Amino acid sequence: MKLILFAALLALAPALVLAQDAPKKPVKAAAAKTTAKAAAKPAPKPTSSRIQLKTAAKNVAAGIEAAEAALTPAEMAIAERVQVGNVPCELGTTVTLVPDTKYPGYFNVQVKTIKYRMFPVETSTGAIRLEDKKAGAVWLQLGNKSMLMNQKLGQRLADECMSPQQIAVAESLKLNPAQSVLNAPAAAVAPVPVAPVAVPEQAAPQPEVAKP
After folding, report:
1. With bands split at pLDDT 50, 70 and 90, how would you rate the model's confidence at 60?
2. Are the C-beta atoms of residues 108 and 98 closer than 8 Å to each other?
3. Antiparallel, parallel or unpaired: β 137-141 and 107-111
4. Are 148 and 132 in contact (CB under 8 A)?
5. 80, pLDDT greater than 50
6. Which tens digits make up the pLDDT trace of 110-136?
């Protein structure tokens, strides 16, 4: 009897093992399918509010850039007098000025490998002045020469820069130097009139009266 039961248990053992392993395989397959679906699922699209915020930020940035680029009529008048092109300077240095076609009145200025973006600034002396405020650079154009300075570093990057027009002015000044006010002839200075000083009149002496 015991032998029969033992034999029956041996016969049922493989079936029990298969029954225990059977549920695990579908679970693993289901998990794998879920992971594959999650990976294949596209990323959520940005909501309309996010799109509107990005668009508004771009518009604000464009508005700020346009406001910074706008120049006054006086500044535009100065920009029209800027001499552009390759301007040779002392020590073999060359400064190149190119007008900005996108923003009228602005100039791209380059010396060696250094580049600046400049715009005109009004001055009390009438000299033409371009500035790059971020970099601290200044281009100063006079009648007979120009110079490029970096005010932040306290350096003069290029000096004695002369365009063909400035060379002509410099030659003219050599032949006909401008007369200084200190060297003006004495005849040209009008004398300052001096007001006469009034002298008070003295009273006439009175005759003596004889005493009785």
Report:
1. very low
2. yes
3. unpaired
4. no
5. yes
6. 999 999 999 999 999 989 999 999 999
Domains of the chain, first to last: 83-169 (2.40.128.50)
Token pair belonging to 123: 């001055």
Q: Quick one: tokens of 10?
A: 């041996």
Q: What is the mean pLDDT of residues 169-175?
A: 90
- Distance between CA atoms of residues 156 and 146, nearest Å: 11
Q: What is the pLDDT of residue 62?
A: 47
| Contact present, 162 and 170 (Cβ < 8 Å) | yes
Rounded CA-CA distance 209/47 in Å is 125
Please give the DSSP secondary-structure letter assigned to residue 155: E
Question: Which residue type occupies 82?
Answer: V
Q: Which of 2-6, 38-42, 92-96, 167-171 has the lowest mean pLDDT?
A: 2-6
Tokens of 152: 């932040």
HSE-CB at 112 with a 13 A cutoff on CA atoms is: 7
Instruction: Please report where in the chains the tokens 């771009």 appear, as a residue.
Output: 58
Separation CA 158–CA 95 (nearest Å): 8
Buried residues in 55-76 as b, exposed as e (16+ CB within 10 A)? eeeeeeeeeeeeeeeebeeeee
**Residue 171, phi then psi, degrees to nearest 5:** -65, -35
Cross-strand bridge partners of residue 140: 129, 147
